[in-house]
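Is this the right way to post structure tokens for a design question? Let me know if I should format differently. Anyway, here goes:
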């Protein structure tokens, strides 16, 4: 057998437990009790409202709980009972993303940038992109063969993260396998989103986009300078092609010293979705259907950029969050982006899934390229294949004057959009989970408290705050919202900024109370016991059944708490350097933060015209230092 066809080369993992072994027996996302949802909602509203406004909202919520809410809750439970293989929110959540007409970059697509060592493997664009491609294909093949390790949260790894545990789980029937893991205090996570990682794209349609998946695709598409290149990465038997051949295919593209495209059609994926749907149909009328299908059908997409953004975090965020849009196809499930200096990362489309599957993919290929790089510096500059053997095809597009003008117009509009965005960041290299553990506080609660205090210092008020929490412990779980602005954080912000500060011991106790409260909210959200998704589903049901919209949803307080000035999310991993996204409202901040053992950092985005990101960043870092000074005393 040829070396490149060996089992070791073809698969990144060979799990004892089949990848999807636990899917069938995963518990379903619970529909929370109406009474508890109303209580949690009021608790989250309290720090945001004046006393009189809170009392008015309290009356509205109590009326809802006793009247309209009961009817809607019954309808939701009946609907949930008819859909045993999914959750009560799954389809609504897909529809929410796919009906949204706002453009994808900045508004929806997040970014992730790899942590990578400074060496010959990682600083060379050709080597880095080839090794990442091979590791991606190894991940893809393991996933497809059902031998990728299933995602399991181990409470006691010494007991459950073992060969013995895996062998036992393998022989348990799928219908009870989750319960077997539960007996070991191990919790398998939903992996339904993994099937959309590859061969997947979002296609613009009038009023509601569609997700398109073609599992037979064995080619990838590479973008460079706004041009598209297609080549096969698997042979007719589905084997990954040999490393030198894949490297030579990418080298062929990098050696094509072509000028940047004057009319890069990728820029059209940055525009409003109905407009893009119209423009895509027009492209098809011009005879470009086959080229578009090649992009849609591709197993994955790689963008080779000429920029060299390292070591500047701000430059990296701008490159991976939006760039100038000319060398991107933002509709693809994800794009692997490798810059001229070897900096690498992802930009991913959000409707098909959340950070869970993307993060796992990033971690696995990051580790694989570090531990088992398949191409080496000595492989460079070896000419072993003719152009015919490489079989790299540049995609051509028929464009008329109208579409050329449209491309220029969209390009200028997108430039205005990303020029209006500001990016700030902070990093602390000596503070992380370890330090927080020593102080007996949650690292996540500490970061959230810093965001609350930073904003309060500038504006002397509290605002709607969103923290994303995965509900992957449940079948087809997506996310729930944690509301980090609580009465505990509000009281601390007031106390620490008042002239008559409490004693240091009292402030330490307040910080610990904030941590306890926040950890409780995170745990509730992870267990499907938040209030946001539940209320969202009830509101949609009222609309769907043509019922009068309950006053809870027309109450200004409901709009206010859902106007998330502070939109936050953490994607914490030893393999991630940067993670971020755009603000979700015009005067808000998008805060992507990372916490490791001895590191805390955040990327903060905002629109320059409506808010001051540098001031907010400074207020947050001052708050960070102030809180640690209190804890150290």
């Amino acid at each position: 057998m040829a070396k490149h066809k060996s089992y070791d080369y073809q698969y990144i993992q060979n799990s004892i437990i089949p990848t999807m072994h636990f899917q069938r027996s995963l518990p379903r996302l619970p529909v929370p009790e109406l009474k508890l949802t109303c209580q949690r909602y009021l608790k989250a509203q309290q720090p945001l409202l004046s006393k009189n406004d809170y009392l008015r909202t309290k009356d509205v919520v109590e009326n809802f709980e006793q009247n309209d809410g009961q009817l809607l809750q019954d309808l939701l439970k009946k609907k949930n009972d008819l859909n045993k293989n999914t959750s009560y929110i799954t389809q609504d959540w897909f529809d929410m993303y796919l009906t949204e007409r706002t453009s994808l970059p900045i508004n929806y697509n997040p970014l992730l940038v790899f942590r990578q060592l400074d060496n010959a493997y990682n600083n060379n664009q050709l080597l880095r992109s080839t090794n990442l491609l091979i590791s991606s294909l190894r991940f893809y093949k393991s996933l497809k063969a059902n031998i990728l390790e299933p995602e399991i949260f181990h409470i006691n790894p010494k007991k459950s993260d073992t060969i013995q545990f895996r062998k036992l789980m393998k022989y348990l029937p799928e219908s009870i396998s989750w319960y077997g893991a539960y007996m070991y205090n191990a919790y398998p996570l939903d992996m339904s989103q993994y099937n959309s990682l590859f061969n997947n794209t979002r296609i613009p349609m009038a009023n509601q986009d569609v997700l398109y998946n073609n599992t037979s695709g064995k080619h990838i598409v590479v973008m460079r300078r706004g041009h598209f290149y297609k080549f096969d990465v698997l042979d007719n038997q589905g084997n990954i092609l040999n490393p030198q051949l894949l490297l030579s295919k990418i080298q062929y593209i990098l050696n094509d010293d072509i000028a940047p495209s004057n009319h890069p059609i990728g820029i059209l994926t940055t525009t409003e979705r109905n407009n893009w749907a119209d423009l895509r149909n027009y492209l098809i009328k011009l005879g470009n259907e086959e080229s578009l299908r090649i992009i849609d059908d591709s197993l994955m997409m790689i963008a080779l950029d000429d920029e060299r953004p390292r070591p500047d975090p701000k430059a990296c965020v701008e490159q991976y969050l939006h760039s100038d849009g000319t060398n991107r196809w933002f509709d693809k499930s994800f794009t692997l982006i490798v810059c001229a200096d070897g900096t690498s990362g992802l930009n991913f489309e959000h409707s098909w899934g959340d950070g869970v599957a993307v993060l796992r993919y990033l971690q696995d290929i990051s580790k694989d390229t570090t531990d088992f790089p398949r191409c080496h510096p000595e492989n460079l500059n070896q000419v072993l294949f003719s152009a015919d053997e490489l079989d790299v095809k540049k995609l051509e597009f028929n464009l008329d004057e109208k579409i050329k003008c449209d491309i220029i117009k969209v390009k200028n509009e997108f430039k205005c959009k990303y020029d209006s965005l500001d990016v700030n960041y902070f990093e602390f290299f000596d503070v992380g989970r370890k330090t927080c553990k020593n102080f007996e506080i949650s690292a996540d609660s500490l970061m959230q408290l810093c965001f609350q205090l930073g904003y309060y210092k500038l504006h002397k008020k509290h605002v709607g705050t969103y923290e994303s929490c995965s509900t992957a412990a449940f079948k087809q779980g997506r996310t729930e919202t944690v509301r980090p602005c609580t009465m505990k954080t509000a009281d601390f912000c007031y106390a620490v900024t008042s002239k008559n500060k409490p004693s240091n011991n009292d402030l330490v106790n307040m910080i610990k109370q904030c941590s306890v409260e926040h950890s409780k909210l995170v745990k509730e959200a992870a267990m499907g016991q938040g209030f946001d998704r539940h209320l969202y589903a009830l509101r949609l049901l009222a609309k769907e059944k043509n019922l009068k919209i309950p006053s809870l949803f027309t109450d200004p307080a409901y709009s206010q708490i859902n106007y998330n000035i502070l939109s936050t999310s953490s994607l914490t991993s030893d393999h991630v350097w940067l993670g971020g996204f755009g603000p979700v409202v015009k005067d808000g901040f998008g805060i992507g933060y990372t916490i490791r053992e001895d590191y805390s950092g955040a990327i903060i985005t905002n629109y320059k015209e409506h808010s001051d990101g540098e001031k907010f960043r400074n207020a947050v870092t001052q708050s960070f230092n102030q809180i640690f000074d209190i804890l150290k005393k």
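Format looks fine. Someone answered above. Worth noting: The chain has two domains: 98-145+214-420, 430-632. The longest strand covers residues 599-607.
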